[in-house]
Amino acid sequence: MNNWRLLSPYDAGETARAFASLDAVFNLEGEHLSKDRLCNVLRITIDGVVYYVKRYRNPGKNPLRRWLGRSRVQAEWENLAAFAAWGLPTAQIVGHGLERRAGAFVRGALITREQAGTVDLSRLAEADDPRLRSPQWLARIIPQAAHIARTLHEHHFAHNDLKWRNLLVDTRDTLYLIDCPGGQRWPQPFLRYRIIKDLACLDKLGKHHLSRTWRMRFFHAYTGRARLSTRDKALIRRILQFFAGRE
Predict the structure, then answer these.
(1) How confident is the model at residue 44 (pLDDT cuts 50, 70, 90)?
(2) Mean pLDDT lowest for which of 35-49, 83-97, 125-139, 153-167?
(3) 94 shares its domain with 123
(4) Are 93 and 61 in the same domain?
(5) Are 152 and 236 in the same domain?
(6) Same-domain pairing of 220 and 162
(7) Of 114, 145, 189, 208, which has the highest C-beta tally within 10 A?
């Protein structure tokens, strides 16, 4: 079974020829950005537009995923589609699909279009970018980051890798959420642990690059409350302790 699909308006013209099928996608040549045992990522340019091609030959870290449940690549394209449906700026999906034989995962791919002029927040941190010390810039970015986290969690969804590298900012100071193959919805009581992990992942770099005041502004924006409740204070303690002894 092969369910390769190109989304409009990419199902015509040069993109349709380049991404015509799963076979064509796996034969593409481009700039290799990363490779591991699960997938490799290419960057290619067509008609002046940059695309990222993520190709999987392994369904995920759990070997049972080859037969049971959704594969990592399917989770990624479904999660990006969910973010867009929830009104969150995210990577624009160009095409996706996977191949199964006798019910077992063989390969899959996801193509997204580059968000022009973006950089991920971890690169800003590595470069000690002056924007991270600008109150005006932070006042625009912090509420967006809080809105992204709150929206995910209100939908009982945890990203599971909500790190600065997966948040892109463009020249208009719009924040985008990307790269989420490990995210999923969780029932209580499991959701609370995952929420703590998401917020701790954000704070892992945040505590090194943001003042305590800005970190608290994020939390107030996340909860939507001006004053901390007893439950909020307990949550903050869990967040601060999450990576203790693991850094």
Answers:
(1) very high
(2) 35-49
(3) no
(4) yes
(5) yes
(6) yes
(7) 145
Are 28 and 133 part of one and the same domain? Answer: no
204 contacts: CB under 8 Å, gap ≥ 6: 163, 243, 247
Q: Is residue 246 part of a domain?
A: no
> Are 143 and 219 within one domain?
yes
d(CA 233, CA 223): 12
Q: How many CA atoms lie within 13 A of 218 on its CB side?
A: 20
**C-alpha–C-alpha distance, residues 206 and 124, integer Å:** 12
Looking at the structure, tell me whether residues 97 and 64 fall in a common domain: yes
Tokens linked to 5: 């699909």
Q: What is the mean pLDDT of residues 49-66?
A: 81
Q: Which residues span the domain enclosing 225?
A: 119-241
pLDDT of 47 over the 80 cut = yes
- 36, 57 contact by CB (below 8 A): no
The CA–CA distances, whole Å, from 214 to 32, 95, 142, 148, 220 equal 37, 38, 8, 16, 10
pTM of the model: 0.93
Q: How far apart are CA 93 and CA 81, in angstroms?
A: 8
What tens digit of pLDDT does each residue of 23-43 get? 999 999 999 998 888 899 999
Helices (H), the chain: 13-18, 22-26, 72-85, 121-126, 135-154, 190-209, 212-223, 230-241
